[in-house]
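TASK: fixed-backbone design
INPUT:
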């Protein structure tokens, strides 16, 4: 199965962001992943609108934005105008999430939801027919460098039949090591958000790492 490799740009060297984008694109990255945090829904701040615009200017690859913010409906137009291709929102942050997902789709953006480790499938079941992407958080959102939460594997297994039925892609985000990529790919996960566990801060080049991950050879 083809693995979608999605660098988490909050882990990139922001002092030379353009160079990082070009190197990752040349290395075979599939989707550039951008975390936006408001310090309210999660206790941290991350990338912002100008970072999104910079990444969009410097790649033709798909760009996604993961809105870890309260009231994401107010951000749809702002980040939509910046040219993102995929937009993830959390069901806990929006009282009328189906309407917001519809608004995202109306803008020509692929709608996605992100579910925290403690969010049940029952809480999002009705949304599954109207999304293109489902991002399963395998750590609690807000910070890089956490440990993978093994109990989430069972949730992923139970989501696979819904993926087959409705046609959305399942993405995994949080402490994704090369070993986890292979393990979760075997379960049916389509794409992987990669930070320091597999991609950034390594001795090998991005091209060596991404090529190895796609072939299942990376360790």
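OUTPUT:
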């Amino acid at each position: 199965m083809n693995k979608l490799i999605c660098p988490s740009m909050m882990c990139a060297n922001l002092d030379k962001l353009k160079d990082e984008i070009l190197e990752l694109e040349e290395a075979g990255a599939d989707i550039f992943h951008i975390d936006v945090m408001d310090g309210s829904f999660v206790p941290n701040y991350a990338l912002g609108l100008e970072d999104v615009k910079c990444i969009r200017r410097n790649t033709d690859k798909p760009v996604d934005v993961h809105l870890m913010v309260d009231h994401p409906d107010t951000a749809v137009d702002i980040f939509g105008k910046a040219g993102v291709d995929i937009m993830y929102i959390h069901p806990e942050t929006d009282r009328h999430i189906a309407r917001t997902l519809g608004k995202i789709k109306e803008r020509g953006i692929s709608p996605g939801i992100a579910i925290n480790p403690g969010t049940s499938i029952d809480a999002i079941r009705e949304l599954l027919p109207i999304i293109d992407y489902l991002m399963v958080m395998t750590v609690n959102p807000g910070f890089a460098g956490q440990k993978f939460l093994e109990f989430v594997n069972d949730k992923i297994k139970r989501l696979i039949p819904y993926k087959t039925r409705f046609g959305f892609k399942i993405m995994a985000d949080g402490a994704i090591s090369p070993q986890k990529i292979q393990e979760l790919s075997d379960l049916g996960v389509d794409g992987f958000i990669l930070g320091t566990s597999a991609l950034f801060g390594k001795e090998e080049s991005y091209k060596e790492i991404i090529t190895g991950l796609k072939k299942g050879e990376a360790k």
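COMMENT: The beta strands are 4-7, 32-37, 63-68, 86-89, 110-115, 133-137, 169-173, 191-194.
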